[in-house]
Design a protein that fits this description.
The chain has 277 residues and is an alpha/beta fold. It folds into 2 domains: 31 residues, no CATH class; 239 residues, Vaccinia Virus protein VP39 (Rossmann fold, 3-Layer(aba) Sandwich), CATH 3.40.50. Helices cover 39% and strands 30% of the residues. The chain has 10 helices and 12 strands. The strands form 2 sheets. Strands 1, 4, 5, 6, 7, 8, 9, 10, 11 and 12 form a 10-stranded mixed sheet that branches. Helix 6 links the parallel strand 4 and strand 5. It starts with a helix and ends in a 5-residue tail after the last strand.
């Protein structure tokens, strides 16, 4: 009944609002993101932020993800329940490419993967593979809840990269909507890429048309949860160049499901280290 009501509300709104305005409104409501400021340092922005460490965020995400796991909800992202799965088809294609290159074996290191958002998003397709290992490296409080409520033979949680790599030997690294929230993203990439993952998939990462990486504060709508945190908006040329210097070739660039907002576009990339068979 709730889905039916929401459907007709959308139809009514769409009928009264001009197409251009409706498109902008839909984009804003879907993203629900507001940025402010252009800060010189991460510390300066952090002092004005709440951050991901807030316990209320974890509880919101856990509650929503549990509903997805139990089949009570279709899809979750950032703690928000959706009435349909919003696939990142290029990311899924990248995962299938990795599996095809490894005789059906897919071992993922999902850095900053929350409680399994991307895993549950794609499990219908992942279940078609015979050998899947999905491993999330997250903050300790996420890992604790992940092991307690979500871990099984396919989905596992780790507090650090080294332990995950030693135990699982991942053949693909996923960084989805995470690098922009790291204080020193290129230092993190330096560490991650030192493990020589054969494939790296970047998704849902914001870029702008400026010639520098910008530090701002991203505000989350209160109807999701009350939070705001420092956020990078990257320069694309610098970003891609970093991977090339580390020996990675760009297979594909794609637009992320978040779309664009002003001069900011969410992008994704699939990189490989070595030749594709």
């Amino acid at each position: 009944m709730a889905k039916l009501i929401n459907y007709w509300i959308k139809k009514i709104i769409k009928g009264f609002i001009p197409p251009l305005i409706y498109s902008i409104l839909k984009q804003y409501l879907r993203l629900g993101i507001i940025w402010s400021g252009d800060y010189k340092t991460w510390e300066e922005a952090k002092k004005l932020s709440i951050g991901y460490e807030d316990k209320a965020i974890l509880e919101k995400v856990k509650e929503s993800t549990l509903k997805v796991k139990k089949g009570e909800a279709i899809y979750e992202r950032n703690g928000v329940i959706f009435d349909e799965i919003q696939y990142s088809w290029p990311l899924l294609a990248g995962l299938m490419l990795v599996a095809a290159q490894n005789s059906g074996r897919l071992s993922v290191l999902d850095f900053g993967g929350s409680l399994g958002t991307t895993f549950f998003q794609n499990r219908k397709f992942l279940n078609l593979l015979q050998n899947v290992s999905w491993n999330i490296v997250e903050q300790p409080h996420f890992v604790k809840e992940g092991k307690l409520y979500f871990q099984d033979e396919k989905l596992k949680f780790y507090e650090d990269i080294k332990t995950c790599v030693e135990n699982e030997t991942p053949n693909v690294l996923i960084l989805s909507s995470v690098l922009q929230y790291i204080e020193k993203p290129y230092e993190l990439l330096e560490n991650l890429l030192s493990y020589n993952f054969p494939f790296v998939i970047i998704d849902r990462t914001p870029f702008h048309n400026k010639n520098y990486d910008k530090i701002t504060i991203q505000k989350v709508p209160s109807w999701i949860y009350k939070a705001n945190y420092p956020c990078w908006i990257f320069n694309k040329e610098k970003f891609i160049s970093f991977f090339k210097k580390k020996g990675y070739d760009l297979i594909e660039e794609f637009d992320a499901i978040d779309g664009s907002y002003g001069n900011i576009k969410w992008k994704g990339f699939i990189f490989t280290r070595g030749n594709i068979k």
